[in-house]
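Structure, all two chains, one model.
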Amino acid sequence: MTLQRPKLSFWFDFGSTYSYLTAMRIETVARDRGLDLDWRPFLLGPIFNRQGWSTSPFNLYPAKGRYMWRDMERLCEEAGLPLVQPDPFPQNGLIAARIAHANRRAEWVGAFVRAVFMAEFGEGRDISDPALLAGLLLDLGADARACLAEADSIEVKIGLRAAVAEAETLGIFGAPSIVTEDGELYWGNDRLEDAVEWALRIVT
Amino acid sequence: MTLQRPKLSFWFDFGSTYSYLTAMRIETVARDRGLDLDWRPFLLGPIFNRQGWSTSPFNLYPAKGRYMWRDMERLCEEAGLPLVQPDPFPQNGLIAARIAHANRRAEWVGAFVRAVFMAEFGEGRDISDPALLAGLLLDLGADARACLAEADSIEVKIGLRAAVAEAETLGIFGAPSIVTEDGELYWGNDRLEDAVEWALRIVT
């Protein structure tokens, strides 16, 4: 008899600050607790647009934005992660999201996601730059040229758009979001541990 | 030599769901960690209005609202607290806030705040009802008639309005918010423990 390993789906947006915190630790957390992990890049932009927001709520609501950056400083210090405020914020993570979506079952997807977030929030680099992304892919031994071409294909563009629609079906309105197989939704880096406990509660 | 006890200021809105979670535990947490506590009722309404919001963001953004209620269910279950969705939501906590503001240094203020939140979110009662508030005050041995009259005075009305302005000066944009004496702002029930650690770090 094979034991079924419970699974978490990690929904993230490359422009999202708190997604950085979760992306850097979720693969380790999942492995340590015996959980499978689905990497689910998506785009908050279309969801925000439909709410009438033209940019991140952290830009629209300055007090919330100032708080978020201070909160991120404290949390990154605690996690031992560097933090640079990217300019502009939020960054355009569309190409990175298409690459991650197309390769979401590749062995190197976690390493790629972490490398993009580290370039963005750890080093303040421009993650919309295909040359930057190509460099990160090459570092991982991936075929950078093929990945970038694939990311520009109609199939991948439609696929990522479908992922956004799927996120909304799941009730997702922000990032990071973590969803268990039975549909429990957890929003925010603060809820990762609760999501893990919920996922484990099903099998034990 | 008298050791100075560090202090937390607890800023809450009686209509706020997550303020309920913090209100029910903060006095115990503060006492256990040797911290003084300032009860700071305020009103999110005017702050939300200036952001262009006519009601709670949990009503304006339905996906966020649905998530919040599910999140509250999970958190209340874990905390052993009852949860009833008040109708309407948010409740009008203006009179309760005026009473709590006017008596924020009274020995019974913590018990009053907890009683209001429990009536609202534990029992689904209407906290805008002066008779309900009078009953809670009498249970605490307070002079209910005098408290209600004082809450209707111009001094208290102006005082609570000044508290809202002070909250904004501190960078507060939501509730609950916890502020340390050196001005560190923590937003949300999830951050209470971090606020405690920050406050203690100053003296040790």
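The two ends of chain B are 16 Å apart (CA to CA).
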